[in-house]
Amino acid sequence: MNPPAPGDLEELKQEETTRPQRKVTRQGKRVRRVKSKRVEMKEVIGFLSLELEKCIDSLVAKLTTVRLLIALAASNNWFLHQLDVDNAFLHGDLSEEVYMQPPPGLNIHNEGQVCKLTKSLYGLKQANRQWFEKLSSYLTFVNYNQSKSDHSLFIKRTATGFTALLVYVDDNVLAGNSMEEINCIKELLHKKFRIKNLGELKYFLGLEVARSKKGIHLCQRKYALDILEETGTQGCKPSSTPFLRDTSPLYKMDNYLDDPDLCFSINLLSQFMQSPTNHHYRAIQHFFRYIKSTPSEGLFFAADSPMHLKSFSDSNWATCLSTRRSTIGFCIFLGSSLISWKSKKQRTVSRSSTEA
């Protein structure tokens, strides 16, 4: 007995056809995953790599843009809402010819025929790109302008207000001073794509958002606790510093934490993953102890912050003992709100602190 077909098949548009010669027919499968305390089942395709298949990039929101939008919302007392698009990838229109074996639960009139996909499906390399193109063209149609600095940001200005929509695949953030316009774009998107209205912004891209009269606080408490659980260090002794000065680094954690006081230590720790020693292991243990002491610390965007852009930069000289290369870094503030930062090891060796 075939399992019940997931909701994807209701969205999936296909044409029954005979497979042309020299065309590959892909086999789909069903994948179950737990998401936000609920189980989802998706029909996926493309999990088997094909020769000569191109890797296709798609645009997603930059974290700097996320922080900038939240800082502006805090300073201007804007509304901050979020929404999720149901089965987002299934809305994209395919420009390539993709053939698929009929999945269980889909009735085919003639035996031996296959499905020619006219819409994208989860697992296809181009699915994300096709969805973004479909969404961006519709937002442009309803008078939203695409930002040139971050193409995932869409802005609409009217005589009475300002509205911004930030896109990260199927997760979207809405900010603006007009609740009427925010509700209007929600209704338009729901009619076109069917969305889930998640209300005020609480959790986005691993960032926990807490708002008060004084401003907006961002932290990654859940991620921090998940790291401690994965590494079995929940019972470690807390530490007040993220990094020991006399230790060298190791450990892959760049996919987790995005706090300015942690980024430099993570940068150092990641350089010794290939051949770590006990010395490096002690350094990462100390880092976990710091995470234990500061799980809820993060960034604060004050409501009374002035709209002045400030930037600072600095570099050290020949501090890498193995290469003698220097490290340069910068941070950018919007008023008192930190919105961007980076540190990077220079490619060449500087002969003096002036060159560094």
UniProtKB/TrEMBL annotation:
- Basic and acidic residues: bias regions: 10-19
Q: Where is this region: Disordered?
A: 1-30
Compositional bias of type Basic residues: which residue ranges? 20-30
Q: What organism is recorded for this protein?
A: Vigna radiata var. radiata
Q: What Pfam families does its record include? A: RVT_2 (PF07727)
Q: Which CDD domains match?
A: RNase_HI_RT_Ty1
InterPro entries in UniProt = DNA/RNA_pol_sf (IPR043502), RVT_2 (IPR013103)
> Per the UniProt record, which residue ranges are transmembrane?
none
Protein name in UniProt? Uncharacterized protein LOC106766331
Q: Which gene encodes it?
A: LOC106766331
Question: Which SUPFAM superfamilies does this chain map to?
Answer: DNA/RNA polymerases
Q: Where is the Reverse transcriptase Ty1/copia-type domain?
A: 57-244
